[in-house]
Amino acid sequence: MPDSQRSEIDCQEAVHTLYHFLDGELTDGKRQEIQQHLDDCLPCLEVFDFEADVRALVSRKCRDQVPDHLRIRIMQAIRIGPGAVDPGDGTQGIPTI
Questions:
Q1: Which pLDDT score, from 0 to 100, does residue 73 have?
Q2: pLDDT (average), residues 11-31
Q3: Where are the alpha helices (DSSP H) in 17-96?
Q4: How many whole angstroms separate alpha carbon 60 and alpha carbon 72?
Q5: In the predicted structure, residue 1 carries a pLDDT above the cut 50
Q6: How does pLDDT run across 45-57, given as a tens digit for each residue?
Q7: Which one of 29, 84, 95, 96 is CB 3.0 to 4.6 Å from 80, fit for a cystine?
Q8: How buried is 31 (Cβ within 10 angstroms: 0-12 exposed, 13-18 middle, 19+ buried)?
Q9: In this predicted structure, what is the pLDDT of residue 5?
Q10: Alpha-carbon distance values, 16 to 13, 40, 45, 66 (Å)
Q11: Which residues contact 94 (CB under 8 A, 6 or more apart)?
């Protein structure tokens, strides 16, 4: 691609804005500039691919499920207020910090 058509974004800026790009937090124009740079720059594209893969892996593997009994206690505490839920340890009515 001729230099006159190349993206004006350098590698440092492309990598710096990578997380905003992945999160969809850029304007359409800035997103197009970053995409153009990634299309033209293999090292930056490799960084992008790595970060996208890491995010996908974390999204798939790092999901904790809250046990039903804990979810119920939390909902009761929200409805009733602090200190009103009997946690089963003899501290009923003692305010928590």
A1: 87
A2: 91
A3: 18-22, 28-40, 42-61, 68-80
A4: 26
A5: no
A6: 999 999 999 989 9
A7: 84
A8: middle
A9: 44
A10: 5, 17, 13, 35
A11: 83
Please list, residue by residue across 53-91, b when 16 or more beta carbons sit within 10 angstroms of its beta carbon and e when fewer do. eeeeeeeeeeeeeeeeeeeeeeeeeeeeeeeebeeeeee
2: pLDDT confidence band, cut at 50, 70 and 90? very low
Using only C-alpha atoms, the chain has a radius of gyration, in whole angstroms, of: 24
Instruction: Specify the residue for token string 């990578």.
Output: 18
Within 10 angstroms of residue 27's Cβ, the number of other Cβ atoms is: 8
The amino acid sitting at 19 is Y
Query: What integer pLDDT is reported at residue 94 of this predicted model?
Result: 45
42-61 and 28-40 helices, crossing angle to 10°: 110
